[in-house]
Amino acid sequence: MRVLITGGTSLLARATAELLLARGDDVVLLQRGEAALDVAQVRGDLREPAVVARAVQGCDAVVHAAAKVGIVGAWEDFRSINVDGTANVIAAAREAGLSRVVHVSTPSVSHAGHSLVGAQADPPVTGRTDAHYAESKAIGERLALGAASDALPIVAIRPHLVWGPGDTQLVGRIVERARSGRLALVGGGTALIDTTYIDNAASSLVAALDAAVPGAACIGRAYVIANGEPRPVRELIEGILRAAGVEASPREVPLRVATGIGTVVEKVWARLKPDEEPPLTRFLAEQLGTAHWFDPRPARDDLRWHPTVSIDEGLDRLAAWFAAAR
């Protein structure tokens, strides 16, 4: 199978490409920059239909992993990349007669501010004005799954808090804030959350590719992917900091206080430092202070997927990576 992966410079895209190559598939990457992999690459902007149409030529399937992430930026940037870019991928895949599409989404598309305990992949929530990433990804997922059919099987995968060696998002931010003395635990870090080690996230995308055939139960559905090992936020953060060799004493902030501070900060920050990431927003406070773990059975039953690297083994690998970097 020849697979196009969009967003080829991301941690998840690289890991997925390496997994596909290891089993003998061909890979094409589409991204704006240069990816550090020796495979066919198309340089260009996902928002340009002609670029996407060129990238899918000769391919059998697409893993659409490209996205604008984070909490800083104009709504139009998030919308044009995460919604229009997705529309371009679906249109190009249909026009070129590809056999399947795996759309990489996020559990935050269904986040409504309350705890998620053993949750399913609930329908995306739209109408939020305080979380451009989650809102644009929710619209993009609805668009992708709405186009699914036996003629073009499409599956959405929502990896939850992906981390591992080389991660600049979760791991990088925790370590940077700890080193600068800005690390805080919302609600004392007691909320149970699940996360996904990078190898497990990549294998779930490959499993979805294999499962997305005409008549399959997964067509038009979304699946939350995680390790299936919910742990308190404090325990996970402490494990990451130990792996990085960083000592820290994060301050504790009650959830109600954190959401209030986040609401004020995001409004002030947008005016004073529009290009810098605020230390806290209401959405982020809710994410850090409420439980988030999910039912693993749908992915197991429909995609025949299960995680192979535990959190503890992942932390050991992370520690070895930091040690080698030092």
Automatic annotation (TrEMBL):
Residues 3-223 form the NAD-dependent epimerase/dehydratase domain. This is Unannotated protein. Pfam families: Epimerase (PF01370). It comes from freshwater metagenome.
